[in-house]
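Researcher: Please predict.
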Amino acid sequence: MGGIALPHRMNGLEPVTRRMMHTWWRFSRPMTLGVRAAVIDEDERVFLVRHSYTPGWHLPGGGVEAGESMLEALHRELAEEGNIVPSGEIALHGIFFNRKVSRRDHVAIYVVRDFAAGPRPPDKEIVETGFFPVTALPEGITPGTRARIVEIIEERPPSSDW
């Protein structure tokens, strides 16, 4: 009889136990998750951005907010940083550990080839944007950004690290 009662009592404690474990995991194993997109047009040009707060050219993207899916975050970031709206398939290229930034940072890279883009109003976060031929990337492109573009264009398997 004792064996039957224990699972019944544990079921009542499960929501509390689960909340306590999630709180513990948040502090013992914290992780950040970001998304970026290689937006490539029909002329094999890739869309890049330069931010006001960090040097170099980057793929557009940013952090995934609580309660937001990775694809929701990607759509939001593309709209904010490039006034870009994907209209076709969005393919996951890979998920990368960005240990140069933090021991807890991970970035998912998507490939977007079908999209609509409009003019982007200036703001304080993005200082410059543009489409660049993948064979003539701009000076100052970050090494991780260049590596992801090369993997995608040359159809190489993705690295595990950014």
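Model: The longest helix spans residues 2-28.
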